[in-house]
Design goal:
Elements (H helix, E strand, L loop, with lengths): L1 H34 L1 H4 L3 E2 L2 E2 H32 L4
């Protein structure tokens, strides 16, 4: 029973991290790059508008940051729940 409780907590924490990463990814990729682009097009960054920047570079950079965040957070969760390598 104790093992199931620990596994359940680990899985819930894992899913929470996944959902947070997916929400951030969707907001940046679809939200800022497509849906909210007209609202942020007046802001200039790197010689172009912010919406275009998110569509072309920003979403890729955020995705790379999310990969490193996910790896760091999962390593921490693994250690906390005793399932690290």
């Amino acid at each position: 029973m104790a093992i199931e409780g620990r596994g359940s907590g680990y899985w819930k924490a894992n899913l929470r991290v996944i959902w947070i990463c997916l929400i951030i990814w969707a907001l940046v990729s679809y939200g800022f790059g497509i849906i909210f682009r007209p609202l942020i097009s007046g802001i200039k960054i790197g010689g172009t508008d912010l919406g275009f920047w998110f569509a072309q570079q920003g979403s890729i950079l955020v995705f790379i940051v999310l990969i490193f965040f996910y790896a760091w957070r999962m390593n921490k969760l693994d250690r906390e729940h005793g399932v690290d390598e």
